[in-house]
Design goal:
Layout lengths: L1 H25 L6 E4 L2 E4 H25 L5 H30 L1 H6 L1 H24 L7 E3 L3 H18 L6 H18 L4 E3 L7 H20 L3 H21 L1 H10 L4
Antiparallel strand pairs: 1-2, 3-4
Helix pairs in contact: 1-2, 1-3, 2-3, 2-6, 3-5, 3-6, 5-7, 6-7, 6-9, 8-9
Length: 262
């Protein structure tokens, strides 16, 4: 029974790792049509949705690790490796190969920018994950910088929405805007901004809203439907979370200063 308890969160981490790996494999196939159980989509769409699946799985491994009291050093390291693939490498490859497939002229003219954006994004994701593992800040209610999971989901969904509303034809302006957004996201991952965690609060009504949004998010995410709604959830959470972190910045720093041993 003890082994099963520890195997459950690692099972979801393994799936997270594989979803990220499959996304990396599919991205270079571009607009090639592919049919699976959920219907027919292009390889790029599948690659993006697999990153969304990784987001959902990443939350499940953490949930079961806490509920089953099965957190281990191995699990933490394995989770970081999976996150680097799913939320660092996979989104970067999606944007790189996506632009080359659906905005070929822009991509050909901006190869250095693409390589810079890809490199910066992957490195920032790696730095973010490494810092999270070693920095003992004692923060219970905040993240320092945008979590890589949130950034990966944001990147995949904004790509899906752009692909959906342009019928898979990106203009040079749109391609530039998406790559610029990618660079901004990378910077936010290693920034010193605080973002409030999605945790239980004193307000029962607020907690109920959180639960409903999460449940609907899982339903739409698993069904690969309504990326606009999923993107809205991430955008609202990020905006409110960062704003609250900025407002509370002084008190957060004061708390850290009063607990240097953390």
């Amino acid at each position: 029974m003890s082994r099963i308890r520890y195997a459950i969160p690692n099972f979801f981490t393994s799936l997270n790792f594989l979803m990220g790996t499959f996304s990396v494999v599919l991205s270079p196939l571009g607009t090639q049509k592919m049919s699976f159980l959920w219907g027919e989509k292009t390889a790029l769409e599948w690659a993006a949705w697999l990153i969304v699946y990784s987001v959902l799985l990443d939350k499940l491994d953490g949930f079961f690790a806490k509920r089953l009291k099965a957190s281990t050093a191995f699990g933490a390291e394995f989770d970081s490796l999976a996150d680097l693939v799913a939320f660092g490498l996979a989104p970067a490859m999606l944007f790189f190969h996506g632009m080359r497939a659906i905005a070929p002229q822009w991509a050909e003219q901006n190869v250095p920018i693409q390589i810079l954006a890809l490199s910066f994004y992957v490195l920032c994701a790696a730095w973010r994950l490494a810092r999270y593992n070693v920095a003992q800040t004692g923060l219970k209610e905040y993240f320092v910088g945008m979590p890589s999971t949130l950034s990966g989901g944001f990147a995949a969904l904004i790509f899906l929405i752009a692909y959906k509303w342009t019928d898979g034809v990106f203009s040079g302006t749109l391609a530039s805007a998406l790559v610029a957004a990618q660079i901004v996201q990378a910077g936010l991952m290693i920034s010193g901004f605080y973002i409030s965690k999605l945790i239980s609060r004193r307000s029962k009504a607020f907690n109920m809203v959180q639960i409903v949004c999460v449940v609907i998010g899982y339903i739409f995410g698993l069904a690969m439907k309504f990326p606009e709604f999923l993107f809205s959830l991430i955008a609202i959470y990020s905006g409110v979370g960062f704003t609250y972190g900025i407002i509370r910045r002084s008190s957060i720093k004061a708390t850290l200063s009063s607990h240097p041993e953390d």
